[in-house]
């Protein structure tokens, strides 16, 4: 029942978001027919033909319904810029963005949670160094981090390529390593700080102190009580930041000249290519919704009591 309710909530959010995305595009300045004529003076008959071709004379709700039905069937329409199928455009660019986001998410989980756990369990120099490093990582903007990484590891040392997505799995991993590091740096820093705080709170909690007083081994207390209980707030922040990676990837893709959906969205917005913008916006909303669903399921797996509270 818990999963069913979450799925129904996700469907409701997607439908409401799709309506807002569709409405926002038509509320924006300009119109598809004005873009298609490229500022040229045309006769009313030509404009009428264009509006009829793209069903612009239909009522708004009819246009939305037809668009939604087509999207559910995998048909996002045609790009107004090059008359190419939007689905094909996305299919060519989504692998780069998804692989970039996946690599950045792995870095956030490994380094963000890992360093946070170490800082939370150890005092002294190790804790201070990790805090200082996380502060620097959070303070450096993503675009500036990308420039620094390119300057050091690409231009100076020549270890990684400056631009391009590569071909083949290993070559693509090599090309996307620096972009993934730049993309994950601020989020990993935030996750590390929150993990450290959560670990330290659980170390001083009553049940952890009582377990130690009863003679339970420290390693067992840390594993069963401290780390497990501290992962609830950490799970939330990790899920939020991973979901936000897709939006943040636009800056990194632009800096490293990657052929992802980020650069495609920037070009589509500049050219008022409504179909492309709507398709990418729906993908972003779906990504956020799915990530929130996974966070809820992970919550329930970590603490089964959450099922009753959050249902």
CATH superfamily: MetI-like
Oligomeric status: single chain
CATH class: Mainly Alpha
Tell me roughly what share of residues is in helical segments: over 70%
| Count of all domains | 1
The Cα radius of gyration reads 24 Å
What's the main sheet like?
Answer: none
Can you tell me the overall shape? Answer: globular
Order of helices and strands: HHHHHHHHHHHHH
Round the mean pLDDT to the nearest integer and report it.
77
CATH topology: MetI-like fold
Query: How far apart, in Å, are the first and last alpha carbons?
Result: 8 Å
Tally of DSSP β-strands: 0
Percent strand? under 5%
CATH architecture: Orthogonal Bundle
Question: Are there runs of 5+ residues with pLDDT below 50, and where?
Answer: none
Keywords: Cell membrane, Membrane, Signal, Transmembrane, Transmembrane helix, Transport
Pfam families: BPD_transp_1, BPD_transp_1_N
Subcellular location: Cell membrane
Membrane topology: Multi-pass membrane protein
Q: Which labels suit this protein?
A:
311 residues; mainly alpha; MetI-like fold; 13 helices; transmembrane
Structural account:
- With 311 residues, the protein is mostly helical.
- It has one domain (86-310): MetI-like (MetI-like fold).
- The chain contains 13 helices and no strands.
- The longest helix is centred in the last third of the chain and has 39 residues, at 218-256.
- The protein starts with a helix and ends with a helix.
